[in-house]
Amino acid sequence: MLFPATEVDESGRHVRIISENARFMPLKYKRLAANGHSLGRLEGAKMAADVKKIGEAVLELERSLNERWSAGDCNGYLDNYHDDVSYFDPVVERILVGRESVVEHLLKLYKNPHIVRSEYLNPHVIVSDGGDLAVLSYNLNTFVSDEAGGDKLRRAWNTTEVYRLVDGQWRIVHSNWAFTKSSSVATAS
After folding, report:
1. Are the C-beta atoms of residues 92 and 166 closer than 8 Å to each other?
2. How far apart are CA 174 and CA 160, in angstroms?
3. Which residues of the chain have pLDDT under 70?
């Protein structure tokens, strides 16, 4: 489920919180829910519909950018980055800020990865109240051809992309790529 924080009832007029992800709901809706109220009438149903539409659009855009990358064309991502993008990946030692520095970094590293298949797992989208900012997080497994004619896992990623609606287009304003497993010992520090 892409949007586990809310559910619209059968009438399409009420929205309620249905998971622990309620901490991401607007405060006014949390207060109503805490007092046992349904979360609005038409306003709540419209909000849920917009969130779903925005989430699907952002996820589809991300997939299209990633598929281009996987097929040997890194320009999808590079062209989409906002001028003020901030960026992390496992190679950089500190945050990169600005499209120019991110593009320079990626062009130094990029080689066609020859990815034959990608799995987009556990996508989750959080949308701002205004509908102009969306945080997309997901796990990505990429596969390359193996010697036996099948495919094998190349890399597993934890990915977070922050998209902002700019002049009618969703642009990446923050990007964070991390290896799914980079340590053999579970630790928070």
Report:
1. no
2. 8
3. 1-49, 182-189
Q: Where are the domains of the chain?
A: 6-179
Q: What per-residue confidence (pLDDT) applies to 20? A: 38
CATH topology of domain 6-179: Nuclear Transport Factor 2; Chain: A, (3.10.450)
Q: What is the pLDDT of residue 43?
A: 44
125 neighbors 161 (Cβ within 8 angstroms): no
Which tokens belong to 127?
């949308």
User: Per residue in 39-76, pLDDT tens?
Assistant: 333 344 445 448 889 999 999 999 999 999 999 999 99
